[in-house]
Design a protein that fits this description.
CATH architecture: 2-Layer Sandwich
Number of domains: 1
CATH class: Alpha Beta
Order of helices and strands: HEEHEEEHEHEE
Strand content: 15-25%
Distance between the termini: 23 Å
Shape: globular
Strand order of the largest sheet: 3-6-8-7
Oligomer: single chain
C-alpha cells in the first residue's frame, strides 16, 4: 500500500492536484484538481504505472479511479457537497483497471484525452438516480 500511495501521490502532484487526507476511506484516496483534464491525465498516469509495475508474485494490483466535476465546499480539511459524494458511488460501479468519468467530467475533459485513448459509454444501472450516462476511460 505504501507503493500504491507513492504512485498515486506522484501522479496527482505531477498534474497540479492536491490530496485531501480527510477524504480517505479505507484504502481510497480523494484528490482535487483545478481542471478536469488534470484529473484525467493523473488517472491515466496512475493506471499506466500500476499496470507496468513489477509487483511481487501473487500481489498484482488493479485499482479503480473515478472522476467527477462539480462544486464542493471546503471546510477545514474536508470537502462537502454532491460532487464529493458522487465519486464513491461512481467508483463502486467500476472494476479494477478502469477510470470512470461522470458525464460532467467527460464534457469538459474529452478533448484532453491522451493520444490513442477513448471513452466507452457504460450506462451503469447501479447508479439508479442518474439519468445521464457515465463514461469509462480504458
Amino acid at each position: 500500500m505504501a507503493l500504491h500511495d507513492e504512485l498515486v501521490t506522484g501522479a496527482v502532484e505531477e498534474h497540479r492536484g492536491h490530496l485531501v487526507e480527510m477524504g480517505r476511506e479505507g484504502d481510497s484516496v480523494l484528490a482535487v484538481f483545478p481542471w478536469a483534464a488534470d484529473g484525467v491525465m493523473a488517472a491515466t498516469v496512475i493506471q499506466r504505472c500500476v499496470r507496468k509495475w513489477r509487483w511481487p508474485e501473487g500481489a498484482g494490483l488493479r485499482i479503480r479511479v473515478a472522476l467527477h466535476t462539480g462544486e464542493a465546499e471546503l471546510r477545514g480539511d474536508h470537502y462537502y457537497g454532491q460532487a464529493v459524494y458522487r465519486c464513491p458511488r461512481l467508483l463502486a460501479a467500476g472494476y479494477g483497471g478502469q477510470v470512470l468519468l461522470s458525464l460532467s467530467t467527460r464534457q469538459v475533459a474529452v478533448d484532453a484525452l491522451p493520444t490513442g485513448r477513448s471513452l466507452v459509454d457504460h450506462r451503469h444501472p447501479r447508479l439508479a438516480d442518474r439519468v445521464t450516462p457515465q463514461w469509462t476511460h480504458d
